[in-house]
């Protein structure tokens, strides 16, 4: 890595740095509260959930499964504040569609309609707004979802970061599909749909101007079609998650905690691209904690695992799917990785996000 930080340079002020994963005893919001880890969970559990209440919110999944007029719906909302807004493999516009579509897909639903709210900072170039809007529209058409309603707000210069986007989506959940972590049982097989850590490293490389010998492109993609392929094999999948903020480690810990099972994964079976592994080694990051935007992790009954894996590998977004572990009865609520040296290590829930502002 050619880039270095010279602490003697007058323009560098270490006192102005912030930590995305600070100490947990906080009286104010810090960056770690938006990282998808323990701080985020505590904020939701102790502030938002008691204030809002309701059985639907208590699900605390990627999307809420609702019944309306005898029809089962998935409903989700998400906000996107990624910096930079354009990166290798996508943009904030692509993320706004694919992130919400994927949240719905994790409930087994095919997204039908999206809302889209733009928060624009005064002074942002109209050309950039148009580029983001075009990217969002293209991503929606690829995902087969319609942007049905929206809103626009403008904030004063210095009170935003160019463009923020909020999207919400709805979709129908097919009969017989019940995807939630409480269905996970010991013996379930853990499958990941492809290489991990790509999106987070792609964002970091552009944000910090780092070069790793090869351009790393975000894996940003809509997973609805892949999920439909999996459900066509059997509707009896137990849970799906897209490991975005907090990466694979956060997703596995959330499922282990909610299901009351332990999870064991084998490190050498977890697909990590060489470029991502190299970048993480240089930067001191663990690929399991780095964000993804086009991957999913599935807990599948063992009797269906081989057939589901074969179907995933036949889909363009699941070509490199792999079995990485299983749910177990021991150490409930804990994720453990078997290392290449034959030992084991605990894979903790992250406190915050190693790389803030990645979605």
Automatic annotation (TrEMBL):
Provide the PurM-like N-terminal domain boundaries: 62-173
Q: Which InterPro entries does this one have?
A: HypE (IPR011854), PurM-like_C_dom (IPR010918), PurM-like_C_sf (IPR036676), PurM-like_N (IPR016188), PurM-like_N_sf (IPR036921)
Kindly give the CDD domains that the UniProt entry links to this protein. Answer: HypE (cd02197)
Domain PurM-like C-terminal: start-end pairs: 186-330
Recorded hits in Pfam families, A to Z, give: AIRS (PF00586), AIRS_C (PF02769)
Instruction: Fetch the SUPFAM superfamilies from UniProt.
Output: PurM C-terminal domain-like (SSF56042), PurM N-terminal domain-like (SSF55326)
Q: Which domain of life is it from?
A: Bacteria
Output the NCBIfam families linked to this UniProt entry: hypE
Q: Which family does it belong to?
A: Belongs to the HypE family.
**Stated name of the protein:** Hydrogenase expression/formation protein HypE
